[in-house]
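User: I've been going back and forth on whether these two constructs are worth ordering. Before I decide, could you fold them both?

Assistant: Sure. I'll take them in the order you sent them. The first construct and its structure tokens:
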Amino acid sequence: MPLTQSSDELSAWLRLSLEPNIGSATACMLLSALGLPDQIYAQRATALGRHVPEALARQLAAPMPTDMAAQVESALEWVAGPGRYILTLADPTYPQSLLTIADPPILLYVAGDPAFLQGPSLAVVGARNATPGGQENARAFARHLAGNGWRVVSGLALGIDAAAHEGALDAGPGGAGTVAVMGTGIDRIYPARHRDLAHRIAAHGALVSELPLGTGALPQHFPKRNRIVAGLTRGVLVVEAAKQSGSLITARLAGESGREVFAIPGSIHSPLSRGCHALIRQGAKLVETAQDITDELGGGPTPAPRNRAKPDSPPPAHPVLDALGFDPLHLDAIQARCGIDTADLQAQLVELELQGRIAQLDDGRYQRLH
């Protein structure tokens, strides 16, 4: 793959991204004051000391350490492969939306098509331990959004994130695709069970990370990932979230950056509804359909071509579904509501599970999916 910058220029960018004790905010300050990375490294320690502490100035003025040089060489070898890119702040293909956040990453590793980092997009995020109903909502919202020209951005995590990516991919070739922002190095898929999903995303969208190759999953990396998720998008939809969920960090960062925040309400009895309800009390837009989101944003992209075949006729109403309602219930509670004997009720519940209309949770309760 041809590089948009010379190998020497990219090496300087990579070194700056690998420097210990320099975050993106400090790096951006140095770039603003002194120019491109190779110009920063051309400075003497005394000149650098006008901008950073003395110890850091000496670090930047010293020759590149051997271990860091090996990391830079590995990154240059990685980006030479097909479908691989490293976008720096000086690259014209760097996503413009990230330039509006307080601390944009100075470079991004991308696997897939960098064009997917541009254009109208929405984040869909939520709990890792999501309910079946929450995952179904995430999948359906993402499928509708991608089918109507909105790229879906999420974090490749278990639960809501994975369902959102899958829903966007389900929109097919006419959909807007999906972007997964990773909290690991781009060569380290986490969780490992999402390896196949990550390959599908790279083939029909993009994987992106600011972290060096080989970086494993550490707790402090995920809030950094979340700021990129929020920064790439016009808005963030939170599907399910507990009160202390990392998804609320994404929502907060989105709000601070002037993005819209949307939340799906849920049962007052579910811990995974409390984060969404808290966001709604703080001013997030309550949404019940994906159309609510596109109506709120207005002026969205031209809808992607879709299959215009008539939808299947809805299945007839089922008395057990009516008894179940929309909150998870144990078998005895369902039976008390519908008055069906145990054997018949269990048979009907199995039938509904096979139809994909309900799911049994780990605690034995049944949850309606549609």
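The second construct, handled the same way:
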Amino acid sequence: MKKTSTRLADGRELIYYDSRDDAVRDAVDQRPLPRVTTASEIRHDRLLGDSVAVASHRQGRTYHPPADECPLCPSQAGRLSEIPAADYDVAVFENRFPSLAGGTGRCEVVCFTSDHHASFADLTEEQAALVLEAWTDRTAELTQLPDVEQVFCFENRGAEIGVTLGHPHGQIYAYPFVTPRTERMLASAEAHRERTGGRNLFDDVVADELADGSRVVLEGEHWVAFVPYAAHWPYEVHLYPRRRVPDLLALGEDARTEFPQLYLEVLRRFDRIFGAGEPPTPYIAAWHQAPVRAPHRADFALHLELFTIRRTPGKLKFLAGSESGMNVFINDVPPEAAAQRLREVASA
């Protein structure tokens, strides 16, 4: 992998990740961009104990542009984008409309490929491996920032999720606090450790799923994918390395090599859940990594959670009163049935 860091016209950082060592990335951003100004602030909710990012400047962000005006495609004559180069493998840049900025974290955009009409599932194993390298490198860099407590790599896919740019891409949020979901995992892990005399919760969850087997979707030598026992979403898969590590940086080479094979297969199965002729399945793919300075961070287990809000052809799972009002999920699809369906649509 070759990494090249440069700057956009307004001073934001842009990083190219190339599979070729001889790639030259010297294209200059020719756009007359003003310096980015943001109004992000973090407000603490005293009742719930969590934090809310207030970012009013995001109201003006790019919204569903036509394909020939996509800001994530490579720049061409007469059409300048966020990527000055005429092509690229993987590109990462500071978000022009960040939710977190200026001492309150950082937001980055990760472009998986220059092909506007592709999806992550269309990538080759080599391309997916390069994205994994980019996620890992950005995690390493962002954890060094003094105000960052947690790094979150994720992908939103599909208009139903709220995606406003159709180009295959994800994002990275570097939070200045530990997220509520991770706090709950850490608390559950600590309680389990005390209750069981030192056992690791994540290890036990994976072992229990493997022992039961009814919710296992796919197994490799170094990774396992399963629908969790208490899945919140209609179709939800958790992907764990068999050897527990706290973050992407700690993944071994064997696990890195195998990851693209299993992940691409799971994504391709997601697109086949609802049958032939159905539109691509909307989803969120979320990497869960240990917070930077959490006590017992080595006990946390890196894993990826993938889920869709589509529950059946043409119907979405909306977060209504119980889910949004009380955070009590009601799942319409039994996890065992979801796992069975994901096994049925395996690649030939």
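Notes on the second construct follow. The chain is about 25% helix and 20% strand. Residues 125-142 form the longest helix (18 residues).
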